[in-house]
């Protein structure tokens, strides 16, 4: 499958997924509203406005009209006759002129700055989306942990009541009652800790993302398989990468600045007209003039520095591409492997749960010991909890892959 076909497959799968509800996630319209209200995103929007104003400044140019006014007094002392004094004045109107080609480069620099600011705004939205997704799944995992320990506590409470009843009937030793009560107390402590962590994660979400509804999920959805090849996902992520877009924009702006610096080796001339009155108004003078700065070593050094900065920006762009490619490949493989890992964990949890149930029936029939039953209950609980957390891990990695490929909460 070639690159175009792979990319098309990802786009089509994205369109199909967009029509389906996203299980275990908050509503997309509320997410969009919450993300756009984030202070970091608002700050990026204000920076974009600043760059738009800077573009207008560069297009207009910094060359402005200047007025020069002067006055003087002339004193004449002839060898013969009486000396005279004259009040004289002069005025000039002047303006530097941008040489041909510089205005176009200034407009290009301004447009590059706006493009970078737009990409930075998109990057701010993307990073906040990542943070929301991560915090959301932290809360889901703590919620799942609390539910698992609540279920375990209910089983142990039932078990402790049965052991106590058997003890009253003389069919169980005092030691078994102590063991069952200890297991119940341990589960109660674990549940209390899980609920504290869950409340902390919920409070973190409320404060970081005001307005986000925290509705506890009734079930955890089964993670779907990752459709599409590694190449297609990497192409989609790289194509939509804001980090790479910023690096490319900085390269383009640095190259434009280098070109502008090269043009500045020839200084802009200043043209002006002047009017003066001499000898008390007896002489009126009207003239024009041109002023041309003579370039020196500073301008050449500034140009060399600008070209070096452009080279540095191009290397940073290449480094960003390597980094994003490596991170995207690692994310794809992690998301792809997470589902099979969860399936294996779910199978193990099922087997251990059945083993615990068989041990419980054997204990009820007077076969086996309470130690074996409690140990099997503990192993089954740990396996069920691990399976739930791995299931959420698989969902989170799949959604993170979709988010980086702009198939989830596409806010651009």
Topology:
Layout: H1 3-19, H2 28-36, H3 39-60, E1 66-76, E2 84-96, H4 102-168, H5 174-208, H6 230-240, H7 242-263, E3 270-278, E4 283-291, H8 297-364, H9 370-404
Antiparallel strand pairs: 1-2, 2-3, 3-4
Characterization of this structure:
The protein is an alpha+beta fold. It has a single domain (3-404), classed as Outer membrane efflux proteins (OEP). It has 9 helices and 4 strands. Strands 1-2-3-4 form a 4-stranded antiparallel β-sheet, with no helix packed on it. The model is unreliable at 1-20 (pLDDT under 50).
Measured as a percent range, the helix fraction is 55-70%
Total number of strands:
4
What is the CA–CA distance across the termini?
A: 29 Å
Biggest sheet: strands side by side, in what order?
Answer: 1-2-3-4
Strand proportion, as a percent range, falls in 5-15%
Largest sheet: 4 strands, antiparallel
Shape type = elongated
Q: Please report the number of helical segments.
A: 9
Summary, kept brief:
The chain has 412 residues and is an alpha+beta fold.
Provide key terms for this protein.
single chain, 412 residues, alpha+beta, Outer membrane efflux proteins (OEP), four-stranded antiparallel sheet, 9 helices, 4 strands, 10% strand, elongated, disordered N terminus
């Amino acid at each position: 499958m070639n690159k175009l076909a792979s990319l098309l497959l990802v786009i089509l799968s994205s369109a199909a997924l967009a029509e389906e509800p996203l299980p275990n996630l908050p509503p997309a319209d509320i997410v969009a509203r919450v993300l756009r209200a984030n202070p970091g995103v608002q700050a990026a929007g204000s920076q974009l406005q600043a760059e738009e104003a800077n573009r207008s400044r560069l297009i207009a140019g910094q060359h402005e009209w200047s007025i020069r006014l002067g006055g003087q007094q002339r004193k004449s002392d002839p060898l013969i006759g009486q000396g005279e004094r004259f009040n004289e004045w002069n005025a000039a109107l002047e303006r530097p002129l941008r040489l041909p080609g510089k205005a176009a480069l200034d407009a290009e620099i301004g447009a590059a700055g706006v493009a970078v600011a737009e990409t930075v705004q998109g990057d701010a939205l993307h990073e906040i989306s990542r943070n929301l997704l991560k915090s959301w799944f932290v809360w889901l995992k703590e919620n799942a942990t609390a539910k698992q320990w609540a279920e375990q506590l209910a089983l142990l409470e039932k078990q402790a009541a049965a052991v106590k009843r058997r003890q009253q009937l003389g069919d169980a030793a005092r030691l078994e009652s102590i063991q069952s009560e200890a297991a119940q107390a341990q589960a109660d402590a674990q549940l209390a800790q899980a609920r504290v962590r869950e409340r902390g994660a919920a409070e973190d979400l409320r404060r970081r993302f005001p307005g986000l509804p925290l509705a506890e999920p009734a079930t955890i959805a089964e993670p779907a398989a990752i459709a599409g090849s590694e190449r297609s996902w990497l192409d989609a992520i790289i194509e939509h990468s804001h980090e790479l877009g910023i690096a490319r924009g900085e390269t383009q702006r640095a190259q434009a600045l280098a070109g502008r610096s090269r043009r500045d080796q020839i200084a802009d001339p200043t043209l002006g007209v002047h009017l003066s009155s001499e000898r008390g108004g007896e002489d009126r003078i009207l003239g024009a003039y041109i002023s041309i700065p003579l370039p020196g070593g500073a301008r050449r050094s500034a140009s060399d520095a600008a070209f070096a900065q452009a080279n540095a920006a191009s290397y940073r762009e290449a480094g960003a591409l390597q980094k994003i490619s490596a991170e995207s490949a690692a994310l794809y493989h992690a998301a792809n492997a997470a589902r099979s890992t969860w399936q294996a964990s779910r199978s193990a949890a099922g087997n251990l749960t059945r083993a615990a149930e068989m041990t419980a029936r054997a204990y009820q029939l007077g076969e086996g010991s309470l130690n074996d039953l409690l140990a099997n209950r503990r192993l089954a609980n740990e396996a069920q909890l691990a399976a739930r957390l791995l299931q959420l891990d698989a969902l989170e990695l799949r959604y993170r892959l979709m988010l980086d490929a702009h198939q989830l909460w596409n806010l651009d």
